[in-house]
Specification:
The protein has 103 residues and is of the alpha+beta class. The protein is built from 2 helices and 7 strands. A hairpin with a 6-residue loop joins strand 5 and strand 6. It is globular and about 30 Å long.
């Protein structure tokens, strides 16, 4: 599922929906979107003046990562489409492990 609470979106995470909603995040600084897979595995994105920031989690907060650098809207869309469609191009991007507090 693709969810974006700020826009009231809860739709299938397919290429058309991702291409439509993700670029709109750049105009709404409090907005974010999540592509949920299952059991604590998801990817999320938000945008600010620097670009789009992506994070993904594999099952537990101990395996939580973010992109090493902000990316463009088009690159964010490509990464999310790859993730949602279970292709693995997204996995070859530079990711940094995050140490989440209290986990």
């Amino acid at each position: 599922m693709l969810e974006c609470p700020e826009f009231g979106v809860a739709e299938p995470a397919n290429e058309a929906n991702i291409r439509h909603w993700i670029p709109l995040l750049q105009d709404s600084p409090s907005a974010f979107a999540i592509v949920e897979r299952r059991g604590g595995t998801y990817m999320q994105v938000f945008a600010d003046a620097e670009g789009f920031h992506l994070e993904h989690q594999l099952v537990t907060p101990g395996a939580h990562y973010r992109t090493a650098e902000p990316v463009s809207a088009e690159e964010a869309v490509g990464i999310l489409v790859s993730y949602a469609c279970e292709k693995y191009e997204w996995a070859y991007k530079p990711w940094e492990r995050l140490e989440l507090q209290g986990m």
